[in-house]
Specification:
Distance between the termini: 28 Å
Number of strands: 8
CATH topology of the largest domain: Rossmann fold
Radius of gyration: 19 Å
Structural class: alpha+beta
Strand content: 5-15%
CATH architecture of the largest domain: 3-Layer(aba) Sandwich
CATH superfamily of the largest domain: HUPs
Low-confidence stretches: none
Order of helices and strands: HHHHHEEEEHEHEEEH
Oligomer: single chain
Number of helices: 8
CATH class of the largest domain: Alpha Beta
Mean pLDDT: 88
Shape: globular
């Protein structure tokens, strides 16, 4: 969870207006929206601010929920947090290792993309097209530069949990696979996100989930595009973003 929410990052949640429509059509809808309350970015930001990572993520998630209320988004059926699902994450990693698609190196656990032939199917990318260091940390211990972390060994000053591979914390991608399986089962209908998540995040989710359970499947992937400002993607780094809170203050509610 990173805050404040800008218009583009909020699109991924606003588009779930179709959950209203599905309910209108009398479908039973179970909508899961998870909070990543611990990861590399949160730890780095917390260290920068001299704040506890969980305190920081709680503040950000509270701001996010306030923004969603301003947008009159329907609340999800379930809103799990990573830190509450370590057992499920560890169990899934064990399954992936047992099925020959992951390996342990000095307390870290990596997914082996070479052992998953379907890798790249969602994004249309081939392993040969992936450059080492592109959204994937370069590590000589990896069997393939594209291998990604399922579990990260504990480092000084970082939160950690016990595991069969030693103290550590989950990698980013495995969190979503484990919580999806917990609340939606191994197969479900719709998975959404921004188009920037197609690779590597959603590609890795598919690999993890199917490596843990071969029957895992998602019927529809829905990705929203970017919001552009003067021909450039809206982003914090470019300083061209506007927050939901600012919009709410500028215009009366509900926004017409």
């Amino acid at each position: 969870v990173m805050s404040p929410e800008n218009i583009w990052s909020s699109l991924v949640f606003v588009k779930y207006f179709f959950s209203r429509y599905l309910r209108y059509l009398d479908y039973e809808v179970r909508y899961v929206r998870n909070f990543t309350d611990i990861d590399d970015k949160i730890i780095a930001r917390a260290n920068q601010l001299g704040e506890d990572p969980f305190s920081l993520s709680k503040r950000y998630s509270d701001d996010f929920l306030s923004d969603m209320a301003h947008l009159q988004c329907l609340p999800p059926s379930v809103e799990p947090r990573v830190s509450d699902h370590i057992d499920q994450i560890v169990t899934m990693i064990k399954q992936i290792i047992d099925n020959g698609c992951a390996y342990v190196v000095s307390g870290d656990v990596y997914f082996s993309v070479d052992n998953f032939p379907e890798y790249g199917k969602l994004s249309g990318r081939k392993l040969d097209d992936n450059r080492a260091g592109e959204r994937v940390a370069v590590d000589d211990r990896k069997k393939n530069p594209a291998d990604f972390a399922l579990w990260k060994a504990a480092k000084d000053g970082e939160p950690w949990w016990d595991s069969p591979w030693g103290p550590g914390r989950p990698g980013w991608h495995i969190e979503c696979s484990a919580m999806s399986a917990q609340y939606l089962g191994n197969s479900f209908d719709i998975h959404g996100g921004g188009e920037d998540l197609i690779f590597p995040h959603h590609e890795n989710e598919i690999a993890q989930s199917r490596a843990a359970c071969c029957d895992s499947s998602i019927n529809y992937w829905v990705h929203n595009g970017f919001v552009n400002v003067n021909g450039q993607k809206m982003s914090k780094s470019l300083g061209n973003f506007i927050t939901i809170r600012k919009i709410a203050n500028l215009f009366r509610s509900p926004i017409n």
